């Protein structure tokens, strides 16, 4: 039963005439990010020395840590405000 159903579907698709489609927009030049010249413009970077690697790693780790702390402070403040709104809906929290 299933094989005859697939044949029926195939016939339905082949019986239909293709619809007219709008032509795609044709450009004369490729976009800048697709050109081969753009990929070759960057030179090869020399390998990092051990001291350079440690310096970059420490700087990036410091940036990540400060971002995490900033986000944790935002979340903590949001949670505190939400709990205050739930516990004291009509007035401020007592001091």
Quick tags:
95 residues; mainly alpha; 3 helices; 60% helix; 0% strand
Outline the secondary-structure elements.
Blueprint: H1 2-15, H2 36-40, H3 50-87
Would you mind describing this structure in some detail?
Helix content is 60%, strand content 0%. It is mainly alpha-helical and 95 residues long. The chain has a domain at 64-88. It starts with a helix and ends in an 8-residue tail after the last helix.
Radius of gyration over alpha carbons? Answer: 31 Å
Average pLDDT across residues? 76
Mass-distribution shape? flat
Structure class: mainly alpha
Q: Can you summarize the main beta sheet? A: none
Question: Approximately how much helix is present in the residues?
Answer: 55-70%
Number of helices: 3
Number of strands: 0
Taken as a percent bin, the fraction of beta residues is under 5%
Uncertain segments: 3-8
Gap between N and C termini: 77 Å
The helix-strand sequence is: HHH
What is the structure about, briefly put?
The chain has 95 residues and is mainly α. It contains three helices and no strands. It has a domain at 64-88.
């Amino acid at each position: 039963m299933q094989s005859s159903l697939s044949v029926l579907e195939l016939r339905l698709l082949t019986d239909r005439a293709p619809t007219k489609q709008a032509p795609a927009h044709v450009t004369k030049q490729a976009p800048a990010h697709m050109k081969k010249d753009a990929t070759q413009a960057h030179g090869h970077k020399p390998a990092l020395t051990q001291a350079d690697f440690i310096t970059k790693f420490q700087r990036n780790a410091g940036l990540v840590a400060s971002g995490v702390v900033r986000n944790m402070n935002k979340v903590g403040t949001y949670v505190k405000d939400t709990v205050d709104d739930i516990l004291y809906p009509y007035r401020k929290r007592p001091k």
